[in-house]
Structure formats: C-alpha cells, structure tokens
Amino acid sequence: EEGFVLQTSQGEYQCESLVIASGGLSLPKLGATPFAYKIAEQFGLQVLPTRAGLVPFTLPPELKTSLAEISGISQTVRASCNDTSFVEDMLITHRGISGPAILQISSYWDGQPVELDLSVNEDLAEKLKTEKEAKPNVLLKNFIATCFARRFADTLVKILNLPNVPLKQLNDKQIQSIADQLHHWRIQPAGTEGYRTAEVTLGGVDTNELSSKTMEARDVEGLFFIGEAVDVTGWLGGYNFQWAWSSGWVAAQFV
Fold it and tell me: CA–CA separation, 64 vs 45, rounded Å?
C-alpha cells in the first residue's frame, strides 16, 4: 500500500501526502526539536549541518566584563565579516553584543573576528583634525565623548588604550591610528548564545533534495518539507516568516 503510516500519541494514521513543518532547532523552550531532520535522514535525504543564526554574540571574559558595565547602550555600526556587512544598531548586553547589526552578521560568522565601524557616517580622522585646530586643549577622551554616548566613549578609551592627552599633542599619524581603531574595531566573539535565543537555524534539509516548485522530496513521492526545516535562511525583517508561509502555500497546492 502506498503512502505513509504515522505512529503518534493519538494513535496510528495513514496518509498519501506527508508535510513536515516542524521547524528547526531555534528556541527550544517553544518546543524546537530535530524531528524534521530525523525524518529526512530516515528517507535518505541529505541534511546539511545546523547552527544558530540571527543570534547574539558572547565575548571573551575581559571584554565581556568591560562592556557589561554599560549594557543597554546602543550604537549604529557597520558589522563585517566574510565579505559581508550590515549597517544597523548594535546593542551592548550583560552577556555580550546584540542588536540588528550583530544578529544579521552572526549568520555569516564562522569563528573569525568581526570588524565594527563605530562611526559609519563620519570620517573621524578629519573630524579629529578639525577639532584639534579649533580646540587644541580638549582632551582626546572628551572629544570621543562628543562622538558617542559618554559611558560608551569612556569604555572605548579604556578598551582601546587610547592616550589621555590634549589633541594638540597628537600628530597626523597618531590621529589616523586612533580613527582607524574606531572605524575598524576588531572583536573576537567567544561564540554565540546558541539556539536558546537564535531566531533561525542555519542548515537543515538540503534544497537540492526538494522540488522548488512543490517542496516535495525528489526521490520520495508524497513527502514534503517546508519552512525552517529546510536549508533556507533569510535576513531579519520578516523574510523567514515569508519563506515559511510561501513554502507552505506551494506545498499545499500539490498535497
């Protein structure tokens, strides 16, 4: 007899079409499990390695401790790694860094440092030189406090070990070096917060195993995989919901 037999807590069911819409591994408190991947493997489908996506970064102890004191502060940044970058807000938390810029870049991160441009809209070297001309006696840390929230500025001065001197004591090379540190702040994440807070799961059922027109497994008639179970990951902003709904709609036309 063709079709599928399901053993469930509510008894046995038979069906001609079986749609697996049980999601990925993100947010286990909401009931996330690897059920979809186990079904795919049971029928011989390729499942690509999974990891947390759209997820906050955790930081090494020393940096985490320094930044935890100013948790809650937000800053527009350009976050970059793996030839990809996002200009959005970064949020400092008591566990590390989060916010849209960090969530977005986390989906492209695989262990390397992440570069943060802390002043996306201003050339800090030019601004520093102009300020030095106008107010040579201003201390560097007070200048930096005009560019960022005061607590963030004070913390940056400590973390980057910037000289606490009047601007008139800085030559052009030093000014460029200070600007470069703020435009190219390289942070080495310790890891991510994992599936506990991740909004999506990277990896899953290989798209090559499924028809893009129907979401049916190419080699298993009547077996469909949709949504987060599949290796499709969108950016922040509703793309993952859209994928879930669209893939579900497509499968529904053929079930």
Answer: 41
Contact criterion met (CB below 8 Å) for 167 and 190: no
Q: What is the DSSP string of 34-50?
A: SHHHHHHHHTT--EEEE
Among candidate residues 246, 61, 25, 66, the one with its CA nearest the CA of residue 156: 66
pLDDT number for residue 123: 97
Q: Hey, what amino acid is at 212? A: S
3-class DSSP state of 250: helix
Per-block mean pLDDT, blocks of 10 residues, the chain (255 long)? 88 95 93 96 97 97 95 97 97 96 97 97 96 96 95 96 94 96 97 96 98 97 97 95 97 95
Tokens for 227, please give them. Answer: 């949504």
Calculate ∠ Cα 147-149-155, nearest 5°: 100
Please give the model's pTM, rounded to 2 decimal places.
0.91
Determine how many CB atoms are found less than 10 A away from the CB of residue 248. 15
First to last CA, the chain: 18
Tokens of 198: 């991740």
DSSP 93: -
Q: Is 252 helix (H, G, I), strand (E, B) or coil?
A: helix
Strands 47-53 and 185-187: unpaired
In the block, which residue shows the tokens 């200070």?
178
Contacts (Cβ under 8 Å, ≥6 apart) of 154: 141, 145
What pLDDT score was predicted for residue 1? 56
